[in-house]
UniProtKB/TrEMBL annotation:
It comes from the Eukaryota. The keyword Cell inner membrane does not apply. Sodium-phosphate symporter. Its main location: membrane. The chain crosses the membrane at residues 20-41, 62-82, 102-120, 162-185, 197-215, 227-250, 332-348, 360-378. It comes from Haemonchus placei. It is found in: Membrane. GO terms for cellular component: membrane. GO terms for molecular function: phosphate transmembrane transporter activity. This is Phosphate transporter. Pfam families: PHO4.
Amino acid sequence: LILHRTDLIKLNAMLLFQHSVLWALIVGVILAFLLGVAMGGNDVANAFGTSVGSGVLTIIQAYIMASIFETLGAVLVGWSVTDTMRKGVVDTQQYENNPKELMLGQVAILGGCAGWLLIATLCRMPVSTTHSLVGATLGFSIVLRGFHGIRWMKIVDIVVSWFLSPALSGTISVILYMIVDFSVLRRKKPFECGLRVLPIFYFICIAFDVLMITLDGSRLLKFDKIPVWGAVIISLGCGLIAAAFVQFVMKPRFNRKIQSLSFLRRLTFETLKKGYSNIIRYARSCSVRSFLGWFFPDKDRIEDDQTIKLFSTIQVRFDLYRKKVRRNRDRYYRNAIAPLTALVSIYKDKNAMQEGEVPIYILLYGVFGICVGLWTLGHRVIRTVGTNMSEINPATGFTIEFGAAMTALISSKLGLPISTTHCLVRMLLKTKSLTILYSVLSENYRSSLSVSLCMLRRIFVYQHLLEQA
């Protein structure tokens, strides 16, 4: 009887608590949807900007693909970033005796981030949701508890990742672009060279993606129970299957299609005189400027159309992978639902420690808001990233997507809430800077220097806006 009365008292206290904070839960659900809409119009949109800008995808195709793979990503990728944003930045034990304050703090986070992201999206600025979310979390905690309870080492890790991830992704993209440039684009027969390396790119793409999905992956699908050696074997097997499919199925189809196209290069007196190679010839000189002018790609070089088309499919493939893991992503649906997950957990259990897992219905709710935002507001940021900042073709777009995919996947598994918006823009800047450096270092550098400086100034203005945001 005593135990029964104790249970009734606890139940009554729980009902009173839930009744007193029900309004906060309702407001939080609405604000979480608005935050998802803002993320869809900004984060998802800037991710597809390179594919749309290079002409690989139409904007409607980008919308459809993003909607499908954002939903898959909510299930396939681990939930470590949600936990980082939920419980890693602030010590929730500070609110153990007053969970209501923590609930109000989550509402404030949702409202502040949603408002800022909507403003940035309407202004066509690709900004970082993670930066906004971390700052809002720190802000409400400082107001309520001062500097007590803030996990400064976690803050240091996050801040360091904001600098390392753009540098890493940009470096990967530059190295890959130079490899593609020297092994394919500068060759006398770039199309044949592109066909030879296509299976290798697909092997790397598929194997790396499967490894990141199966290695300590989704608990919902029991991927977290797969051992390391099992994940490696599965990923290598999938990569080999993909490479074999490209080698024996896609390559013959590409050859037949290209041979039947009406716009194949026709022999003329001019082409016979110049030859087929796009490699730029320089006067023999041992100067540093001549070497660098040869090393960096010419911004005025006319690429082979057939070869560029080869990179269209692989760019879309990497783009889709980045959507499935996106965003470890510094934000995405995980960041959209992290405060909402805390709200629901506290409301159900009256426990600030939030011991439960992230419910799948909350993940899907966040994805729904993101898809709505993408379809209604995404075109604004897509134009900024895809066309206004730099000219992109499928080859450069592929290298950008590869760097973004690797950085996002690795950071996701490490639980680092990086800013992939900054990664994407930094990769675009570094890839574009290669052609700008050529114009400065080549023989006509004086005439092209002013144009290059104007381009650099325009690019770094965008990056400055991102850093301030």
